[in-house]
C-alpha cells in the first residue's frame, strides 16, 4: 500500500511541474511576441531613407483626417506605415494642422508629425534649378550659375576636377575614372539628371548640386535596373543612345522609332550620321548642320566614325532612356524630321533622298 501511495503522489507532482512549465513557456512566448511587436512599431517610425537630400511638397487640406494624411504621406514614400503613423499621431498631444509643408524621407515619423503639428509652413527655396531633358553639361552649368551663388566657370571647374570625379566614381560605377575616360569630353556628361532641384536655407555649392544630380541619375538607373540587366548594351551605351534620341526626337512618339533606326544602323555597321553628334563635336547647339560641319574631326562626329560616340552628348529624360532600352522594331534605316515636328521613316537611301528633296525647302525659312 505504501508503495502505491508513493507512486500515486509522485505522478501528481509531475503533472504540477509540467503545468507550471507550460505556463512559463506561454508567458515567455507572449513576452517575446510583445517585444517583437514593439520593435516592429519602432522600426515603422524610422526614416524611409535616412540619407535622402530631397524634399517633397506635402499639402494637407483643411478637414483632412489623420488617417487620410497618413495614407498621403505613405503614398509619397515619406513614412513606412500609414497605420502605425496614424496611431502614433493619436498618442501625441497635438493634432495635425492643414497647410503646405516641405518634408523629406530622411525625417523620422516623429519629426514629420512634429512639423505637421507645429504648422511649419513651407518656405520658398533660396535656389531652384530646373534642368530640362537634352541639356549638355555646359548648358547645365549656365543654368545652375544663373540661379545659384557661383559662376558658370566654377561649376565647370568642379564638374571636371579629377579628384572630384574620382570620388564620384567610387560611389557610382557608371562614372569613369579620369584615367579611363579615353576620348570622352566630360566624364559627367549625360549623368546630370533632368529635374527641378530646390534648396532651402543657404545657397548650395556647385559640388552639392552636381552630387544631387548624379544621385538622381543613379535612382533612375535603379528604376530601370531589370531592363538594363537584360540589355545587350552597357549603361554608358544606353545613356549615349538615349541622349541622341533626346536630341533628335521632337515628339514623344518618335523616340522609340528613332531608337530603332539607331539600332538598325549599328547592326549593319553603318555610320549613324546623326546631326546632334556633329553639333556636340562643334560645341554648339544647332538645328541644322552644313556640309562643312560634317567634316569636323572629332570622335563624336558620327558622320566620320562608325559606332556610337564615346559617351552621351546630353542628359536624357526617362522617355528617351525607355526608348533606348525598348526600341521600335522596324526595318527603317533613315528618318527625316520636318520643321513642323513630323518624322518620315525610310528603309532605303533612295526613299530617304526623295523625302529629303521633297521637304528640304521647308527648313530655308527656319
What can you tell me about this protein's structure?
Helices cover 49% and strands 8% of the residues. It has 366 residues and is mainly alpha-helical. It has a two-stranded antiparallel ribbon. The chain contains 14 helices and six strands. It has three domains: 55-118, Endolytic murein transglycosylase (Dna Ligase, domain 1); 127-222, no CATH class; 225-365, no CATH class. It is elongated. Keywords: Cell membrane, Cell wall biogenesis/degradation, Lyase, Membrane, Transmembrane, Transmembrane helix. Its EC number is 4.2.2.29. The chain crosses the membrane at residues 21-46.
Instruction: Output the number of helix runs.
Output: 14
Describe the strand arrangement of the main beta sheet, using strand numbers.
1-2
Number of strands: 6
Number of domains: 3
Uncertain stretches of 5 or more adjacent residues: 1-11
Q: Which structural class should the secondary elements be placed in? A: mainly alpha
- What is the molecular shape? elongated
Q: What is the N-to-C order of secondary-structure elements (H for helix, E for strand)?
A: HEHHEHEHHHEHHHHHHEEH
Oligomer: single chain
Mean pLDDT reading: 87
Query: What's the alpha carbon Rg, rounded to whole Å?
Result: 31 Å
**Span between N and C termini?**
120 Å
Q: Summarize the amount of helix as a percent range.
A: 40-55%
The major pleated sheet works out as: 2 strands, antiparallel
Beta-strand residue percentage:
5-15%
